[in-house]
Structures are given as C-alpha cells and as structure tokens.
Design brief:
Number of strands: 15
Number of domains: 3
Helix content: 10-25%
Number of helices: 5
CATH topology of the largest domain: Alpha-Beta Plaits
Distance between the termini: 30 Å
Strand content: 25-35%
Mean pLDDT: 91
CATH class of the largest domain: Alpha Beta
Order of helices and strands: HEEEEEEEHEHEEEEHEEEH
Radius of gyration: 21 Å
Oligomer: single chain
C-alpha cells in the first residue's frame, strides 16, 4: 500500500533484513506493526501509506504483459494507467488475453479479490475452434482433470456459432465463469474438451463488468463498484 513492492517482494525484503520497525530490524514474517503509529523503514528510509485509495479498471489489450516492469522491454499494463499514485495490478491476465484488469493501492481489497478462499468469480468470452457437444459442455461444468488435478465446477454457455469464411468449418463463442486462478486455466479447460482458444477476453470480475470500455482505455471505479468488491459473491 506504500508503493514499495508487491506482497511477495515485500516478504523477500523482510527476510533479507531490509525492513525495520521502530529502529529494530525485523526478519520474521508475520510480525505485527501499525503503520499509523509505528515507524516503518526500508533500507533506512521511512515509508508512508498512501492516504488516497485509488481503484481503476483497464481493458487490457492483447500483447501486453501484466507486470510492473519487464526486463525484456515488452509493453506492460503500467503503460496504460495513470502514474500519479503508485498502483499495482490485481491478479493477472496472460499476454494474449484481453479484458478487465483492476489496479489499486488498496492491498486489503486486492488480497480479498485474489485469495483462493474468497472464490471470486471471473467471467470470460472465448472464441474457440469448432462447437462443443452437449457432453463436452457437461464435462466442463463438472470439472476437468488438468495436469493431474480436477478443476472446480465451472459455468459454460455457447453464445454464438460462427462460420469460417471459405470453409465448412465453424467457430463458437463461449461464455465461461470460473473461480480458480490456475495458469492458463480457461485455455487449458477448452483444449481439454477438444476446442483450442482463438481469442480470450475477461469481461467480469466478481460484481464488476467491463461493459463498453474501449480496449487500452481505463476508468475509475464508482463508489458502488468498490463496495461490491468487498461483498461476498453469490455462488
């Protein structure tokens, strides 16, 4: 929340002896401190919690990586959001996946949306090769074994069947909702039922919807939307 590092990086900094509380170096994870009363320092420099909490929604384009910095010089999501306040992406989207990505300096809310125990629902529109059978859709909903582990039950619905120009082939648009966060999960689940993903867009997270926000554009969340993030989502 102070804009120093991600949660994981902060843990590394603590273990490496770079953090002190009231002048005492702390290397043990889980030690409690009150940022409003205690003096917190990183590398001998005091840190301050940002007083203003910011919540932003971005429609991430394809070809952009979800990271604060990239050693390979690729475009990152940080190139698309304002930098007046230090923000971090909430969760991630693969480089070749577009759609709804949240940014905030509110670490508590970010943790609430990303921790597996909260089972935050994420909804995608996928265009895939071919059209799934009723049996395939049924198996998808029940869960699929991927890399030796069964996925949680999911929602899937065929929105549209599209002809491939100049051929007798078809593609289909699927509406998919999951609450897990495995790597490439939607793509892997679609391939597990025999349908390779052509394009993938995330259109909703919890109670938030992408709507008509243009690709590459961002907007602030409304107070009502922020409030919806902290409410338990119905299963």
């Amino acid at each position: 929340m102070a804009g120093v590092a991600s949660r994981r990086k902060a843990e590394e900094m603590i273990q490496n002896g770079r953090v002190s509380v009231n002048g005492q170096v702390v290397t043990e994870l889980g030690v409690k401190a009150n940022p409003l009363k205690d003096t917190l320092e990183v590398d001998g420099k005091p840190i301050k919690i940002a007083s203003e909490k910011v919540y932003i929604m971005l429609n991430k384009p394809e070809g952009v990586v979800t990271t604060v910095t990239d050693p390979f010089g690729r475009p990152t999501v940080m190139d698309y959001v304002p930098n007046k306040v230090r923000l971090y992406p909430v969760g991630r989207l693969d480089s070749d996946t577009s759609g709804l990505l949240l940014f905030t300096n509110d670490g508590e809310l970010a943790q609430m949306l990303t921790h597996p125990k909260h089972e935050t629902k994420k909804t995608y529109v996928a265009e895939v090769r071919g059209v799934p059978t009723l049996d395939s859709l049924r198996n998808f909903r029940r869960g699929l074994v991927i890399e030796g582990k069964k996925t949680a039950p999911a929602l899937i619905k065929v929105l549209e069947r599209l002809p491939v120009k100049g051929t007798k082939l078809q593609t289909s648009k699927l509406l998919i909702t999951i609450h897990e966060g495995r790597n490439h999960q939607v793509r892997n689940m679609c391939e597990a039922i025999g349908h390779k993903v052509i394009t993938l867009q995330r259109v909703a997270v919890g109670g938030l919807e992408l709507g008509n926000l243009a690709k590459g554009k961002w907007r602030n969340l409304t107070a009502k939307e922020v409030k919806s993030c902290v409410k338990p989502q119905p299963r």
